[in-house]
Amino acid sequence: MKGIEKEENEIKESKKKNNEKKIENIDNKKEEIGIYKKDNSTEKKEKQKENLKEKNDNETKKISIELEKLIEYKYNEEGVLINKKTGKKCGILNKQEYDLVGLYVQKYVENLIIKTFDLDILYVPNKENKNFEKRDNTMAQCKILTTKNFPSNEKCLILIQGTGVVRLGQWARSVCINENLTLGTMIPYVDKALKNKYSVIIMNPNERKDFKSEEKIEQFSTMQEHCVYVYNKIIKKNNNIKQIYIVAHSMGGECTVKILLNNKEDLINRKIIKIAFTDSVHGTEYKDLGKEGIKIFRQISRNYICSDKPAGTFVRNYETSYGGVDCYSSGHKKHEYTSGTAIDEIFKYFNE
Predict the structure, then answer these.
(1) Rg of the chain's alpha carbons, rounded to an integer?
(2) Other residues' Cβ atoms within 10 Å of the Cβ of residue 188
(3) Edge-to-edge, what's the strand order for the sheet holding 314-316?
(4) Model confidence pLDDT, tens digit, residues 43-72
(5) Is the dihedral of CA 163, 167, 173, 175 positive or negative?
(6) Pick from 155, 147, 152, 148: nearest CA to 272
(7) Tally of CB atoms within 10 A around 70
(8) CATH class of the domain comprising 122-350
(9) How many CA atoms within 13 Å lie on the side-chain side of 165?
(10) Beta-carbon neighbour count of residue 196 at 10 Å?
(11) Mean predicted lDDT score pLDDT of the chain
(12) Element (H, E) at 213
C-alpha cells in the first residue's frame, strides 16, 4: 500500500510541476505579447511621425519646384541665385518679380534647412493636450524648427530673426537674393551649433497667418507674443536644458528682451548664459529688468553692430549704446549682413 501511495504522490507532484510550468509559459507568453505590443505601439507612433514629416517636407519641396518654374532664376551648388540661361547672379528685379522670387526663396530655404539637418517641425500655438509635433487642425498655426538633439541636450541655441518678409531659416531675404545663402540664412549657425554640441530651436515670429489656410493666428499678433509663447511652452518646459544661448537680429532683440522680462528667474539664475544681438533695436525696455537683472544682462550680452572695422572689434560700451550693452563690430557696414558676417565672433564669444 505504501508503495502505491508513494507512486500516486509522485504522479501528483509531477502533474503539479507540469501545471506550474504551463502557467509559467503562459505568463511568459503574455509578457512577450505585452512587450511586443508596447514596442509595436512606439514603433507605429514613430512611423506616423516620420510619414507626417515626409508629407510636409514634400509639400514644401513641391511648392519650391513649382515656383522655380515661374521665375528665370535658381540656386546653384554654392547657394548663389543665378539666371537659368546666363548663369549670372540675379540682377535688378521689378516689384512683381521680386515678390515671386522672394516666395521661391522662402520655400527653397525652408526645404533646404530641414533636409540638410533633418530638422523636426513643431506647430505653434497648440492646445495643452496636444503634442507640438502634430498639426492641430482646430486652430491657425505656424511652423518652428528644432534639431534632433533638442529634447535631450543640455545646451540650447535659440535663433530669432528680425521683422519683415523673412521666414523660417532666413536672416535677410535681400541677402539671399543678392548675395548667397551662407550670409543670408541660418544654415551656417545650425551647422556650427551642432559641431559645438548645441541643440537649436529656430523661431518664426513673422508668420502671423496659418501656413496653409492663411487664417490669422490670434495668439501671435506680434513677434514678441510668438517668441514668449515658444520660450514658455517649449523651451522652458524642457527640463534637460541647462544652458541657453540666444542670437537675435534686429527686431529679434526686442523679442529677446520681452522673453527676459517674462522669465527674469532664468536670467538671475544664469540659465541664460550668453546673448548675441546682431544690430539689434531692442531699445531701453531692458531697464524694467531691475538693478540686478540689468547688471547680469550687460554681463552676458553683446551687440554686433554695423561697422567697417574687423569683426569682433570693440566699438563702444553700454553707457553710450542705444541698447544698454557693449557693442562690437559685426564686420559689415550694412544692417542685413550683420548676422552672416559676425558668426565666427559670436561662437567664439559663446565658447569663452
Answers:
(1) 28
(2) 17
(3) 120-124, 142-146, 199-202, 155-160, 243-249, 272-278, 301-305, 326-329, 314-316
(4) 555 555 555 555 555 666 677 677 778 889
(5) positive
(6) 155
(7) 10
(8) alpha beta
(9) 18
(10) 13
(11) 88
(12) none
Q: What are the grid coordinates assigned to 155, written together?
A: 545646451
Q: Would you tell me the crossing angle of helices 95-117 and 187-195 to the nearest 10 degrees?
A: 20
Count of CA atoms in the C-beta half-sphere (13 A) of 69: 5
Give the DSSP letter of residue 179.
T
pLDDT in tens, 317-335: 998 887 999 999 999 999 9
Q: How far is CA 258 from CA 1, 126, 251, 290, in A?
A: 94, 21, 11, 14
- Return d(Cα 200, Cα 191) in angstroms, integer: 10
Dist. CA 170–CA 173, nearest whole Å: 7
Q: b/e for 33-61, b at 16 or more Cβ within 10 A?
A: eeeeeeeeeeeeeeeeeeeebeebbeebb
Report the predicted TM-score, pTM, of the whole model to 2 decimal places.
0.83
